[in-house]
Amino acid sequence: MTEHILEMRGISKTFPGVKALSDVNLAVSRGEVHAICGENGAGKSTLMKVLSGVYPHGTYEGDISFDGKAVSFKDIKDSEHSGIVIIHQELALSPYLSVAENIFLGNERSSRGFIDWNETNVEAAKLLKRVGLTLNPVVRAGDIGVGKQQLVEIAKALSKNVKLLILDEPTAALNDEDSAHLLGLVKGLRDEGVTSIIISHKLNEIRAIADSVTILRDGRTIETLSLHDGSVTEDRIIKGMVGRELKNRYPERTPSIGAEILRVEDWTVHHPQEHSRVVVDRANLSVRAGEIVGIAGLMGAGRTELAMSIFGRSYGSNITGKLYKGGKEISVRTVSEAIRHGIAYATEDRKRYGLNLLDDIKRNISGAALGKLARRGWVDSGREAVVAGGYRSSMNIKAPSVTSVTGKLSGGNQQKVVLSKWMFADPDVLILDEPTRGIDVGAKYEIYTIINSLAAQGKAVVVISSELPELLGICDRIYTLAEGSITAEVPIGEATPELLMQHMTKEKD
Amino acid sequence: MASTLTDAALKPAAPTLTDAGRFLASRLRQIGIFVALLVIVTLFQLLTAGKLLQPDNVSNIIVQNSYILLLAIGMVMIIVAGHIDLSVGSVAAFVGAMSGIMIQDWNMPWWLAFTASLVIGGLVGAWQGFWVAYMGIPAFIVTLAGMLVFRGLTQITLENRRITGFPAEYRQLGGGFLFPGLFPADTNILDWTTVGLGLLAAGLLIGSQLRGRATRAKLKLDDEPMAWFATKLAFGAVVILGLTYLLASSRSGTPIVLVVLGLLVVTYSAVMGNSVFGRHIYARGGNLQAAQLSGVNTKKIDFYLFVNMGVLAALAGLIFTGRLNSAGPGAGNLFELDAIAAAFIGGAAVTGGVGTVIGAITGGLIMGVLNNGMSLLGVGSDYQQFIKGMVLLLAVGFDVFNKRRASSALK
């Protein structure tokens, strides 16, 4: 009989308006590598945050028992004390401190308040050796590559006498060689008795190293499969991830598609800081008038990066490739040029990139096309209020007045303000990045209706979304993106969640 | 029980006293700064047994604080954009010194020296704006360097002397009055120029407000209640006419610098509220990334903000030099801190995105009245500094506390 090192029973977690986890069960055997799979938003990260005490005991329902004892963690420190260490997708190393200092950060080797540098560096070197790194522990963490940083994170975990290591998308930012090394290390740690939970989108990796896999969907546990006998295929896992009923959650629409409006050719984008890292790789895509085109991709596939680089090079460096608008090549070097060429981009992160939360609804709506309301540099405030009032009623923005501050609106209403802003700019191409993220179901339907009406006006609409059912419900054509490359172009008639997921998880050749 | 509840919810409640109270409370945050000024003026009027609002003292307060108020206009714009300018005192001193050299050593006519001084201010601003906007150096660093650089240049320019004996025309800007002796002395119960100007200002205020309200009504836009609008307007008119009366009965009538300041306040309020440039400043300070992703050229905004600040600092330098009839190496010391304090007391947010010209002017007046009132009471400069410091801390603390309460009420 296998003994369970971790059992989570009946875990439910509610955020205002959203049930992120409902009655989730997870049992991890001692000394195994246990994978967790699911679409973006399925609740994987929330579950791990519950486990590691980011969401403290009392803010969720259900029980956790670890190492045979019932536990109730107050914070991360508490869970680390019990031997649970989580390594997040975004690495948490301080770039200006040395590798050794990072490893012992918060856990310093010291006597009477003074750091013992010799012990720090010697112990660090031993830990680095365990993770297969031959590296001088005094180099700055910012000076080593992402792959090595990931290993330093693991060394840091080992310094805390880890019993259960949680890795959230550990290979998302790594190249193949570094990925292979990391996965080998996780296997090696298993043989030393360290249990691991690995969250990954890369199904081939999961099949290669995991002993079992738990699939989450819509905040529920779907199933736990053993991978030992090899009978579980990637398709079998995909079916578990996406297999849900599509109900009538999308408004009816008869598309009327016209001529091509925007075409992107051989579009290559590099990371803004690491200039050699390719983020978008020779992407080709086009969108026609009245058409809704979806871009499907898992986290880190380069969806937002592709969109923002097209939108006036607001992301990336060394951008190459060509843009054609209505058949003519255009040069779009700044956001204002993009807007002038009739391209608009509504961000996935409206609080950070979309709205001035300190200002009111009308001024946010006029923000991208203030020139239309101005004569010789002076804004006609009366007309601005009238315009904003028009959008408030047509978009059904629920606020007492157009002078209400946007920071106080709900997510759905904020999104409507962002959409109003871009509708007022009257673009030909509208790129919507996660237009329904963090929005409740009712408001989602309204947003879909707005998207449909934009297409009906003859605009070309590009929708980026993590939710496959959403793309299948509203798009005419879907591109899949994996590791910065467009891996397929699927007409809506042929698209199934399984097919899309296959292309989204495709490895580069 | 349930039915009474729904009845109450459906029927629009008659306006009650508590409603009026709630309305006033919600407006109090907007007008709190004006109330604070009123309280401070009343307090010192009582403490000094009426000396504070003596006509000549009021005239004195205005002239004494004019250059700080002028700097506060530019400063609040910089702060709204999310920057700071520590160099304005040194820039004012440098421009004052340059104007002295131009007039005394190069024998330039006063008007040419004025124009050249404003151009120098603009160039200084362009220099600092270049580093902030296009080189991406934080404004704190650029202007801290500027504070030292232009203080040094002031001393180099002056070769450690003090230039005095400016022509009378030059001195008018800082210390002159509008058309003294326009009317024969025996008809002067009040200074009629001042009275005319005051009536004109009050008329323009009422006219423009009424026209704005009429336009809003025509466009069927929501507006504030009539009673509130009328109260505010009446209050504004009373303040203007009261000030008119005091100045008209003072020895010399309207200070020229007050006219300059009044025009600048009106112009810059309009720029901040209604021009594309002004609106882009708020957008830049409120959320830099969102502004950039809306196509706002934030670098250009930053650059011209500093050019503007440079010109205003030059003007402040000319006023100050003219008032003292002297350009010295230590002129304008700590002006920047007074201007920054005025903007923050006037409700500007440290993180940018929030602040108004009229708020900064009111903040500057609070500091000015405090200074003057305490001097009249014979409070030493040691206590004055202490009290001004505490006022700044408490004013911003009150604002932050208020915001936090408002945002936690949301959750």
List keywords for this structure.
heterodimer; A: 509 residues; Rossmann fold; 2 domains; 6-stranded mixed sheet; 17 helices; 24 strands; globular; B: 411 residues; ABC transporter involved in vitamin B12 uptake, BtuC; disordered N terminus
Write a brief caption for the model.
The complex is a heterodimer of chains A (509) and B (411). Chain A has 509 residues and is an alpha/beta fold. Chain A folds into two domains: 4-242, P-loop containing nucleotide triphosphate hydrolases (Rossmann fold, 3-Layer(aba) Sandwich); 260-504, 3-Layer(aba) Sandwich (Rossmann fold), CATH 3.40.50.
List the helices and strands and how they pair.
The complex is a heterodimer of chains A (509) and B (411).
Chain A: E1 4-15, E2 18-29, E3 33-37, H1 44-51, E4 61-66, E5 69-71, H2 76-81, E6 84-87, H3 99-103, E7 110-111, E8 114-115, H4 117-130, H5 146-159, E9 164-168, H6 176-191, E10 195-199, H7 203-209, E11 212-217, E12 220-226, H8 234-242, E13 260-270, E14 278-288, E15 292-297, H9 303-310, E16 317-325, E17 328-330, H10 335-340, E18 343-346, H11 350-354, H12 361-365, E19 374-375, E20 378-379, H13 381-394, H14 411-425, E21 429-433, H15 441-456, E22 460-465, H16 468-474, E23 477-482, E24 485-491, H17 497-504
Parallel strand pairs in A: 3-10, 3-11, 6-9, 9-10, 15-22, 15-23, 18-21, 21-22
Antiparallel strand pairs in A: 1-2, 1-4, 4-5, 7-8, 11-12, 13-14, 13-16, 16-17, 19-20, 23-24
Chain B: H1 2-10, H2 17-47, H3 55-80, H4 88-105, H5 110-134, H6 139-158, E1 163-164, H7 168-175, H8 192-218, H9 226-248, H10 256-274, H11 276-286, H12 288-292, H13 298-324, E2 326-327, H14 335-345, H15 357-376, H16 381-410
Antiparallel strand pairs in B: 1-2
